[in-house]
Amino acid sequence: DGSDAAAHAALEDLCRAYWYPLYAFVRSLGYDAEDASDLTQGFFARLLERDRLRAIDPSRGKFRSFLIASLKHYISHQRARQQALKRGGGVLMVAIDVNEAENRYSRESVCDVTPELTFERHWGRTLMELALRRLRERSEKGPDHLERLVPYITGSGPQVPYAQMARELGTSTSAIKSSVHRLRRRYGQLLREEIARTVADPGDVDAELRHLLQVVQPWEA
Fold first, then answer.
1. Can you tell me whether residue 116 is helix, strand or coil?
2. 155 and 188 Cβ atoms separated by less than 8 Å
3. How far is CA 57 from CA 22, 63, 69, 129, in A?
4. Which positions ≥6 away from 211 have C-beta within 8 Å?
């Protein structure tokens, strides 16, 4: 909206939400954890220092396509890859916990895929996590109740029969089915909203959703 404060907050939100898919992409290129962390932070610092996001033409495509193309260009022209990044100077930095990132990367990495597919899979997973986080924040049920229903909502993880879940939660089977139906529909809406933030044309949301589900689902199977 032209406000420096609003722009800063929006950039911080983008960086915090999407740094991990980029980190996973760099790691899958063969860089170790330290270099991948430096390159990912350096990329965001360069992006923000030069105010490149203001120059983006939304009509040119998807935000994920812009980010991965920009990161590839940055890596190919990066000369001091082993040098630690300079802090300060008013530059927004992304705090990367390397240990946490490596634990996640070791659990989720697949050796027989390309770095580009690794990026897209983590990008899709990130969007799903953001939608699920919003669902948790808006849920009228207690956190334990919702967490027990997450496998039914997202289609990932083991799913026990509805009757068994009803007994464990002290409710009826029909109530569980009704909750799952309602939460699944709301989760789908929230996921589409997250995707809509990353594409130029609202008409592209469904196609982008289908693509991301295609790359994520075989990985989680």
1. helix
2. no
3. 21, 10, 14, 27
4. 120
Return the residue matching tokens 């962390």. Answer: 37
Cα–Cα dist 150/216, whole Å:
17
Q: Are 54 and 102 in contact (CB under 8 A)?
A: no
CA dist 46 and 44 (Å) reads 5
Residue type (1 letter), 107 = R
Q: Is 60 a residue whose pLDDT tops 90?
A: no
Greater model confidence, 181 or 52: 181
pTM of the model: 0.77
User: Which residue is associated with the tokens 């790691």?
Assistant: 27
Least confident window among 60-69, 80-89, 192-201: 80-89
- DSSP H helices, the chain, are 4-28, 33-49, 63-76, 98-108, 115-138, 143-154, 162-169, 173-196, 205-220
Per-residue pLDDT at 121 exceeds 80 = yes
How does pLDDT run across 184-195, given as a tens digit for each residue?
999 999 999 999
